[in-house]
Amino acid sequence: MNDFLLRMKSLLGDEFDEFLKFYNSDDFIKGLRVNTLKCSPEKLCSLLDFELKKTPFCDEGFYVPSDVKSIGNNPLHHAGAFYVQEPSATSAVTMLDVHEGDYVLDLCAAPGGKSTQIGAKLNGTGLLWSNEIVKNRANILLSNIERMGISNAVVSNCRPDELCKRLENRFDRILVDAPCSGEGMFRKNDAEREWSIEHVKSCAARQLLILNSAKDALKNGGYMVYSTCTFSKEENEGVISRFLAENPDFELVDSGVTFGRPTLDYARRIFPMDGGEGHFAAKLHKKGEPYSNYNTPKKNNKIDSKIFDFYDSIFIDRPFGENIEVIKDKIIVLPQNYNFDVKGLQILRAGVILGEIVKNRIEPHHSAFTAAKKESCKSAVDFDVNSKEIAAYLHGEEIAVSQDIKGYTAVCVNGITTGFGKASNSRLKNKYPKGLRILR
Predict the structure, then answer these.
(1) In what order do the strands lie in the sheet with 361-364?
(2) Which residues make beta-bridge pairs with 33?
(3) Is 87 helix (H, G, I), strand (E, B) or coil?
């Protein structure tokens, strides 16, 4: 890794020795981001048994003490109250400045940290389209979208060029968190083994191709943030400079943030000395007169009244809307603003699976409960984060409930929906998905 360190010394100058202290340390910078769709920062701070310290990168971001272990097993994590996320990784979405009602594309979205951050900013409005080209990573992305309770998302598994041609001029904001050489994550994973100058150059070439694909999906007047978790100039300043030279209808603009340090005037670099493992982000504006090209959501074919009866039997006031489509055995509540020609595209999920048709009955789906608030559920049980009941539920066990609790019932942790079960005779049959359970 001598070549890498020599490049870092050239980049950092007098700060190289300080960087080296971080690089050679095993004390990683750990963080989490509160999911405001389900929980407030104040509430989460009151429920965790360790202290959180604010990061400069986003309003919902916090540092986690280095001695905290197995945070992913915490019931609040299962409930989607927070996302474990390296602190500086939250910077790109902050720079994107998502507003409620926006149509947002996250083009390279797995595992989902930035997508779920966008979803929280949208707060159930507009549309989030999250794409990942690698199939198994796309499935992880979908699982995180579901856990975090995002009901207005589309998750796809497509090539960026193919997808963006089909979605031309449809998005107000686009995030391109491009695959990179991962220099900012060397301390945390095995990316160091694959590093070479040739690999850096190949990453830069691929990143420019992805950015040139993404531009097609952006509306006139829209904004696009390009980000990486690497330090190399070729993949950062180099890619942005080449993109701007090839696309005079784009300009680099000020994102209004103060964290990290400026480069190319308005782009931002973050080093470990700045409070994050490493990140780069630049905000681009597509020139031209803004216009609205949203189509009116399509009206679906007549839906069997039994489906609405089922919907009303477990939820109050149909919290996900009524844009329902039945696909094979699944009843899907599509995002309200979903009206795209998706024929031929690999769509893993659009919206929320309300239920599945099994023989002559309908059974609820886990994703419907994770996206619902406690007050939207007809029946709910609520347990404390440290209770034996929630521990048993996450292990897949049946639990005792009040005799007056009957039927399909939301299971909550301190008021935050986690999943569901079916209550009968003072027992709650466990419906928490086997793949998500905590093994003893």
Answers:
(1) 324-327, 330-333, 352-358, 361-364
(2) 61, 83
(3) helix
Q: Which of 87, 95, 156, 153 is nearest to 120 (CA)?
A: 153
What pLDDT was estimated at residue 23? 84
Q: Residue 36's closest CA among 96, 111, 90, 107?
A: 90
Q: Is 229 a catalytic residue?
A: yes
Q: Determine the straight-line distance between the first and last CA of the chain, rounded to whole angstroms.
A: 40
Confidence (pTM): 0.96
Q: Write b or e for each residue in 32-41: b if 16 or more Cβ atoms lie within 10 A of its Cβ, otherwise e.
A: bbbbbbbbeb
Whether the Cβ atoms of residue 349 and residue 371 lie closer than 8 Å to each other: no
Residue 152's contacts (CB-CB under 8 Å, 6 or more residues apart) are: 119, 122, 124, 125, 126, 127, 128, 335, 336, 337, 351
Q: Choose, from 164, 180, 229, 377, the residue flagged as catalytic.
A: 229
Band (pLDDT 50/70/90 cuts) for residue 189 is low
Residue 319 has pLDDT above 90, yes or no: yes
* Token pair for 324: 């329902």
For β-strands 407-413 and 427-430, DSSP reports them as unpaired
**C-beta of residue 262 within 8 angstroms of C-beta of residue 268:** yes
pLDDT at 299 over 70: no
Distance CA 291, CA 220 (A): 7
Query: 6 with 20: CB under 8 angstroms?
Result: no
Point out which residues pair with 315 in neighbouring strands.
Answer: 377
Residue 218 β-bridge partners: 171
Segment (H or E) for 139: helix 135-147
- Among residues 94, 239, 120, 255, the alpha carbon closest in space to that of 179 is found at 239
The conformation of residue 334, written as its DSSP 8-state character, comes to: -
How does pLDDT run across 73-124, given as a tens digit for each residue? 999 999 999 999 999 999 999 999 999 999 999 999 999 999 999 999 999 9
For residue 17, what are its two tokens? 């020795």
**279 contact partners, CB below 8 Å, separation of at least 6:** 88, 89, 91, 92, 184, 227, 228, 229, 260, 268, 269, 270
